[in-house]
Design goal:
Length: about 450
């Protein structure tokens, strides 16, 4: 059900935005919403990267099967990053975007063309880790980073904010942190209604309706939507008088509208100066049928019945005969490598630089330290007063940083307290990384060991 809600968000990315490793600059990094992994496997099946035997071993990891969630340890040639437990994806995505910027500014790797995408559930953003680095991403102007939040309004047991509006809440949080925010709330089916809403009644009704009600409208028939949503004001009822009940049921949410999603992604990639979050409204279990779509129990429904499978087949127009469901299981369906669908997927991935996700390892052999390295340390302090461990480590680190072959590859990461441990002697020579350099004169500028920042520190 998670993948059903995020399918459009991912497919627009796969077909038009996610650049593979052969793309100029080395391609993009995509942190997938962990619970959507079956859909990523399904696409890989259509692309010819996985076969039916692979799919049949989903979660049978001891047999060389497909891991439940993205993790390169189990599938070292497929997944690039682990993204579950909750909050791990967004936290690491910020770190990846920052590292791409750092590698570029240090002159180690040109990662300036790489974009980092993180797909996140709206309920996942309640995890402390999910929002831990939002401020850092904004402060450092990581415009190479895009969060896509799949706002299907549900967590495991029920609504994320049944009595509130999670999209509005997230917009306030991200804007407050300094992010560029793009909302994809309503699909094109609403455009005509909104254009005729000259008094703002429809907009007001949308804004006052809580998420618990919107979830309810998905599971009810069109006459219920007409009476409970539009029936609160005669002018609203008149606005949709020309629409049938079936039309009201089909009014789409923005996260399932490919044109709206494409426009949002394009705007995100063109924005400069700040990271972007796309808040897309979707339906959990979208297109799976009334027994699944927006139901609170959808996370616990592990199997579909034969009638449910046949209903899904009919909705998707798949040429699968009833006899194929005789054992109560859904057959794996592939339209064929020469089908219009498979050819299109292959063409788009070639144009974008190869498959995604795909993990490649290009380890470089680094040079050993120069001859004579560490002799001073190995000799000990002699007749001098014994030095502390931290002092010895700082001297060792300085020697490594000055090594002509290895030094530029070493990056000391000190959260704070460098001065406490005598490491401030490194500041003048190697500087402290700051993406925009040092825009001020520090209070200790006149001292030998002053606080010094630089974009290539």
């Amino acid at each position: 059900s998670t993948y059903a809600s995020t399918a459009t968000l991912l497919e627009v990315g796969f077909n038009h935005f996610f650049r593979g490793r052969s793309a100029p600059g080395g391609g993009d990094q995509v942190f997938f919403q962990g619970h959507a992994s079956p859909g990523v496997y399904a696409r890989a099946f259509l692309e010819g990267r996985l076969d039916a035997e692979d799919l049949d071993r989903f979660r049978r990891e001891t047999e060389g099967g497909l891991s439940s969630y993205p993790h390169p340890r189990r599938m070292p040639n497929f997944w690039e990053f682990p993204t579950v437990s909750m909050g791990l994806g967004p936290l690491n995505a910020v770190a990846q975007a920052r590292m791409n910027r750092y590698l570029t500014q240090r002159g180690i790797v040109d990662a300036s063309a790489a974009r980092v995408w993180a797909f996140i559930g709206d309920g996942e953003l309640d995890e402390p880790e999910s929002g831990a680095s939002l401020g850092l991403a904004a402060r450092e102007g990581l415009d190479n980073l895009t969060f896509v939040v799949n706002c299907n309004l549900q967590r495991l047991d029920g609504p994320v904010r049944g009595n509130g509006k999670i999209i509005q809440e997230l917009e306030a949080r991200f804007r407050g942190a300094g992010w560029n925010v793009i909302k994809v709330v309503w699909g094109r089916g609403w455009d005509d209604l909104l254009s005729r809403d000259v008094d703002g009644l429809l907009l007001e009704r949308m804004n006052e309706t809580v998420d618990g009600d919107f979830q309810k409208y998905v599971v009810e028939a069109g006459d219920y939507i007409r009476s409970h949503f539009f029936g609160t004001d005669p002018r609203l009822a008149e606005l949709v008088a020309h629409l049938s009940d079936a039309d009201l049921e089909r009014l789409p949410r923005g996260g399932h509208d490919v044109a709206k999603v494409h426009a949002a992604y394009r705007a995100a990639t063109l924005h400069r100066g700040a990271p972007t979050v796309v808040l897309a409204k979707t339906v959990k279990g979208w297109a799976l049928g009334r027994d699944f779509a927006a139901r609170n129990a959808t996370h616990q429904l592990k199997k579909m019945t034969v009638p449910q499978l046949q209903e899904l087949r009919d909705r998707l127009g798949l040429p699968i005969p009833d006899a194929a469901f005789a054992d109560g299981m859904a057959p794996f369906h592939h339209p064929g490598p020469d089908s219009e669908e498979a050819v299109y997927l292959a063409e788009r991935r070639r144009a974008l630089g190869g498959f995604v996700p795909e993990r490649t390892v290009r380890a470089k052999v680094l040079p050993a330290p120069a001859a004579g390295f560490g002799e001073e340390l190995f000799a000990g302090s002699g007749e001098r007063h014994p030095v502390s461990t931290t002092n010895a480590f700082t001297r060792l680190l300085r020697t490594l940083l000055r090594d002509p072959g290895l030094g530029r590859r070493i990056v000391p990461i000190v959260p704070d307290e460098a001065r406490t441990f005598g490491m401030d002697s490194l500041f003048p020579d190697f500087r402290i990384y700051a993406p925009f350099g040092q825009r001020y004169e520090p209070v200790d500028a006149g001292l030998v060991l002053s606080y010094r920042e630089a974009a290539d520190g």
